[in-house]
Write a structure and sequence with these properties.
This protein is mainly alpha-helical and 184 residues long. Helices cover 72% and strands 0% of the residues.
């Protein structure tokens, strides 16, 4: 029916919309793009997911592995937890369910216990209703995708670019100090 088609199209666009919102977070030239950035990423997946540039690079990697939906689901759950208005929470819960968890989801994630969360539970949402599923996806990323990401061309190229930027900045600083010494 028309309603089902619109609903499916809406979920698809929501997935793309959510994806674009998180793409815009990584601002070029930010302090996150220093050597400390990639060093922090290697320390833990948590650190990587706290850094907008890290999320952007990790998503780029997951997209190539055909598993970008995992990080999108994790991010959607993080946003959901911040929602305080009950009506908005209901709407977001339905969006998350229809986009990532239902059998007709446009960006379906593969989680155990997916069937335990049903549409009737969406009527009385609470901030932690997706927590167990989010934890499953986090662990899947942590023990599967994350280690491969740290060895990937995407990560290594970004790390080299940071190192070159750092070395260039250091060389300029040395030149400025030398200039001050010899010009005084």
């Amino acid at each position: 029916t028309f309603v089902k088609k619109v609903s499916r199209i809406g979920r698809y666009f929501w997935c793309i919309y959510f994806s674009e919102i998180n793409d815009s977070d990584g601002k070029p030239g930010s302090s996150q793009q220093t050597l400390k950035g990639t060093s922090r990423w290697t320390a833990s997946l948590e650190n990587l997911l706290e850094d907008p540039e890290g999320v952007k690079r990790f998503r780029e990697f997951l997209k190539k592995e055909f598993s970008e939906e995992n990080v999108l689901f994790w991010l959607a759950c993080e946003e959901f937890k911040k929602t305080q208005d009950k009506k908005q929470m209901q709407e977001k819960a339905k969006e998350i369910y229809m986009t990532f968890l239902s059998s007709k989801a446009s960006c379906q994630v593969n989680v155990e216990g997916q069937s335990r969360l049903n549409e009737t539970m969406l009527e009385e949402p609470h901030p932690l209703m997706f927590q167990k599923l989010q934890d499953q996806i986090f662990n899947l990323m942590k023990y599967d995708s994350y280690s491969r990401f740290l060895k990937s061309d995407i990560f290594l190229k970004h790390k080299r670019a940071e190192e070159q930027e750092e070395n260039s900045s250091e060389a300029q600083s040395v030149a400025k100090r030398a200039s001050r010494i010899y010009n005084t």
